[in-house]
Amino acid sequence: MAQREYTASEAARALGISLDTLRRWDRQGRIRVRRDQANRRIVPAREVERLRGEEAQTLSARNRLEGVVRDVKIEGLLAEVELDVVRGGRLVAVITRESAEHLGLAPGMSAKAVVKATSVMVER
């Protein structure tokens, strides 16, 4: 049976973000949570799915590396995106400035590096 709810730490891990980021998103209204009787955050599975964009994944790629954006450097038409990959390691990708701005990439947010052949794409 699929998991219906996550603790805050489980949800943060599933989203590839820190627990502090999840708490900040809650305060900002970016993630919907409920509180249990001990006032702990409980995150519905559908909310984790919404933030991961699972219903909208249409790329045919085997290698998706979940991570947290460490840095975004924009210069001219290009953007250098640095991800701390959840499974360990760091990845740097150069994408268009337009793509970085469209994705709203900023340090601390979750993102995925999609690796296919010799190309690396970034999605959120």
Commentary on this structure:
By secondary structure, this protein is of the alpha+beta class. The chain folds into two domains: 5-56, Multidrug-efflux Transporter Regulator, Chain: A, Domain 2 (Orthogonal Bundle); 63-123, RNA polymerase II/Efflux pump adaptor protein, barrel-sandwich hybrid domain (OB fold (Dihydrolipoamide Acetyltransferase, E2P)). Helix content is 27%, strand content 40%. It is built from four helices and eight strands; from the N terminus they run βααββαβββαββ. It has helices at residues 8-15, 19-28, 45-52, 97-103, and strands spanning 5-7, 34-35, 41-44, 63-75, 78-85, 90-96, 110-116, 119-123. The strands form two sheets. The chain has a five-stranded antiparallel β-sheet. Strands 1-3-2 form a three-stranded antiparallel β-sheet. A hairpin with a 4-residue loop joins strand 5 (78-85) and strand 6 (90-96). Helix 1 packs across helix 2 (19-28). The radius of gyration is 15 Å and the shape is elongated. The two termini are 27 Å apart. The model has no long low-confidence stretch (mean pLDDT 85).
Concise summary:
By secondary structure, the protein is of the alpha+beta class. The chain contains four helices and eight strands; from the N terminus they run βααββαβββαββ. The strands form two sheets. It has a five-stranded antiparallel β-sheet. Strands 1-3-2 form a three-stranded antiparallel β-sheet.
